[in-house]
Amino acid sequence: MPIHIAEATRKALCNELGVSRLVEVMEYDFQDISPDADVDRNKAALYADRNQGSVRLNSGRYYTAKEYAARVRKVKSLELP
Amino acid sequence: MDVPVEPPEGKHSLDQDIPALRGVADLYVQAKALILYSEEVDPESRSNLQVIKELRDAFDHLMRVIVARVGSEVPPGAADPEYCSKNTQKAIGHIYRAAFDALDGTVLSLRVKITEVVDNYSLDVLNAVVPNYWDIKCRLNDLSGRITEHRARKDVGSEIGITLDQYVADVEIIKSFYKELLSYGPALDEYTAKLALQERHSRRKDRREQLFIATASAVVSGLLVALASFFWLGGQ
User: Fold this and answer.
1) Span B37-66, pLDDT tens digits
2) Least C-beta-crowded within 10 Å: which of A7, B91, B94, B107?
3) Of A2, A22, A72, the CB nearest to B108
């Protein structure tokens, strides 16, 4: 199925991203997800209703980077008899 | 803007990338299995965003190859003859990292589950009933301790496959142990009850001995007092 994007949209995106052609964004990396640049759980919840994607993510069943780092510390501290 | 479904004439196809892409495909199948297992075994059925992030980045590098080969427009970096092979390698690196992150999560989840079981029993009971408890405990501690180290080792180029295989083998041992541990449940309960009974008997025996000693001491003391009184009165 052909995909349509309006010329105005293309120009707006190019301006916003500082490229002359959209294909140039292929050289760009996505934002990192790490304890220093983490996902905002509250922001993700805002979009949950209109997100048709993962039920698991929409219902908040995931570890953000900070939560995961905390989990590693907590589980490592568990003492077995 | 219409995006043609067929690649434009005169452009390259993905044919030359097939061997490298097959490597990506085979690795991905294994990584996906590890990720699915990691999600299954998580006590709260939670996904790890680090894993999702690695898969996203792998997809992005694969798309760079696809765009460079069959896209309507070519990315600037595609002028480099190694562009596609470099991006395929980067995609492979991200898939490996996703697999390692999934295995890290699996180790954490298994540690939580194993701790929940063994916390109900004393070390004496565990050592008596579970023959390899001490070995597994050491291995689990070692694996948990190496979680951050594994993450660091994910960047080791040529050794990465061997490292992943070793990690999978280690996790397999812990997985098997967890299953084995669950099967020991009745024996662990039985041995705990047996030890409790022995302890009760031992306490009762101790109490009897203490009572005997107290009674004997009282009798001996009484006799000594009587004897002392007799001699003292006799002397007068």
Assistant:
1) 999 999 888 889 999 999 999 999 999 999
2) A7
3) A72
The two structure tokens encoding residue A10: 């293309």
Contact A61 B145 (CB under 8 A): no
**Dist. CA B90–CA B60, nearest whole Å:** 10
Distance CA A74, CA B173 (A): 22
**pLDDT tens digit sequence for B117-148:** 999 999 999 999 998 899 888 988 888 887 76
What's the rounded Cα separation, in Å, for the pair B174 and B103?
12
Q: What are the helix and strand counts (H, E) for chain A? A: 4, 1
Q: Amino acid identity, residue A80?
A: L
CA distance B211 to B206: 9
Nearest CA of chain A to the CA of B144: how many Å? Answer: 6
Q: Secondary structure of chain B in the HEC alphabet?
A: CCCCCCCCCCCCCCHHHHHHHHHHHHHHHHHHHHHHHHHHHCCCCCEEHHHHHHHHHHHHHHHHHHHHHHCCCCCHHHHCCCHHHHHHHHHHHHHHHHHHHHHHHHHHHHHHHHHHHHCCCCHHHHHHHCCCHHHHHHHHHHHHHCHHHHHHHCCCCCCHHHHHHHHHHHHHHHHHHHHHHHHCHHHHHHHHHHHHHHHHHHHHHHHHHHHHHHHHHHHHHHHHHHHHHHHHHHHC
